[in-house]
Amino acid sequence: MENRPSPSTDQLSDAELATKLDPDLLPKHLAVIMDGNGRWAEARSLPRIAGHREGIKSVREMITLCLELGIQALTIYAFSQENWNRPTTEINALMGLLEHYLSTERNKLIEQGVRFRTIGRTESLPTSALQWVRAAEQETAHLDKLHLTVALSYGGRSEIVDAIRGLVREAQDGKFQPEDIDEALVHHYLYTHDLPDPDLLIRTSGETRISNFLLWQLAYTELYFTPTLWPDFRRRELLLALLEFQRRERRFGRVFSSLSS
């Protein structure tokens, strides 16, 4: 089901939209599936990589707004394990774009206090791209104004498999018994073990699925789908998504009675 802004917000400026946000009801952790880069480019008779280049501008705006609002964590789905099945020319272009982003944005991230990290089976990345990733992770490891997590060569099922492997290895070493395994322990072995689960997931481009992204972590996450293509998803679009998030009642399986006791 697509989420669309109510008529009451259509005529408001970005600044007016921002004043409607309740700081106490903002998500602590925002996750984004950045979809529609290729379609954006094709609609303009441009090569697909042009859409990914334009999409970097949206990433910049998301980081800036998260910092302004005090959102603690932003996790973006940049490259899935399934994306390795794309044409080699496109994969090479995407890896080159990743290196370009890190080479040009790294100093800005440091200035902003953004910690950069990746999740996924990143050992599959080309050597040069992996070197850029590791350097950015090391140079920003001490920063904490915003935790920017980029999912690269990532799959939600693979993450769970990797967590199970870690659990089995340590159980075999006698660190705990099988009956000691609970949700908290499983969480400890996930790629995102040091982050809270996302409060809000945004997917752009009109698709209404989660595409093997953060399968464990999204159990109680609010989902927001928009037809806007990722390169067009800028500050205003995120403000509208946050306003929609604040209108929802998060029950986590509980029932809240409207009657006073």
Entry keywords:
alpha/beta, 261 residues, six-stranded parallel β-sheet, Undecaprenyl pyrophosphate synthetase, globular, 9 helices
Mean pLDDT: 93
Q: Bin the helical content.
A: 40-55%
Question: Which class do the helix and strand fractions yield?
Answer: alpha/beta
In order across it, which strands form the biggest sheet? 3-4-2-1-5-6
The secondary-structure element order is HHEHHEHEHEHHEEH
CATH architecture of one domain: 3-Layer(aba) Sandwich
Number of helices: 9
* Major pleated sheet: 6 strands, parallel
Radius of gyration: 19 Å
CATH class of one domain: Alpha Beta
Give the amount of beta strand, in percent.
5-15%
Shape: globular
Strand tally is 6
Classified in CATH, the superfamily of one domain is Decaprenyl diphosphate synthase-like
Question: According to CATH, what is the topology of one domain?
Answer: Undecaprenyl pyrophosphate synthetase
Can you give a write-up of this model?
The protein has a domain at 25-155 and 197-246: Decaprenyl diphosphate synthase-like (Undecaprenyl pyrophosphate synthetase, 3-Layer(aba) Sandwich). Helix 4 (48-69) runs parallel beside helix 5 (88-112). It has helices at residues 7-10, 14-19, 37-42, 48-69, 88-112, 127-140, 156-172, 183-188, 235-246; strands at 29-33, 73-80, 114-119, 146-154, 200-203, 222-225. Strands 3-4-2-1-5-6 form a 6-stranded parallel β-sheet, with helices on both faces. The protein has 9 helices and 6 strands. The protein is globular and about 60 Å long. It is an alpha/beta fold. Strand 3, helix 6 and strand 4 (146-154) form a beta-alpha-beta unit. The protein is 43% helix and 14% strand. The model has no long low-confidence stretch (mean pLDDT 93).
